[in-house]
């Protein structure tokens, strides 16, 4: 085999290896304006919710064709959680001790299973480290990802207790209004 043919074959092989790695190990960035994360809770007066206005994060895949996630991290600016009521927001920030702990974060730890639902949709069962108000806990998290064009959509919800993260449920009006310990975090996160 002559040298020019050998070089062509090696060049072609290198091209396919690089292309394959690019296809398999793609990283996407969270798009804040298209993503939504809401925390829902109860109180002795009425149900309540706060919505995150500032979040960031990344997701990358071992193999995007099979929905195999390699890494995923999401960070929320704690004082970007807004209810539309300034008094409630102040109580929320006090309970979260935002003067000391500026961010809430989730870091994927392990994928337990990935199940294809067809058309680029995958059901994911995972665990990850959720850090709220300086307390980090390993939690289980089931969610769905949809992969289409240049976007990845991650949708799910997680119920937690505030006291599991050493957060005293907020009180108002000298303790006459109390907040329930259970909250639900609902998210629809878009990565591009």
UniProtKB/TrEMBL annotation:
Lipid/polyisoprenoid-binding YceI-like domain sequence ranges: 27-192
SUPFAM superfamilies, per the entry: YceI-like (SSF101874)
Membrane-crossing residue ranges in chain numbering: none
InterPro entries: Lipid/polyisoprenoid-bd_YceI, TTHA0802/YceI-like_sf
Protein name: YceI family protein
Source organism: Mariniflexile jejuense
Source lineage: Bacteria, Pseudomonadati, Bacteroidota, Flavobacteriia, Flavobacteriales
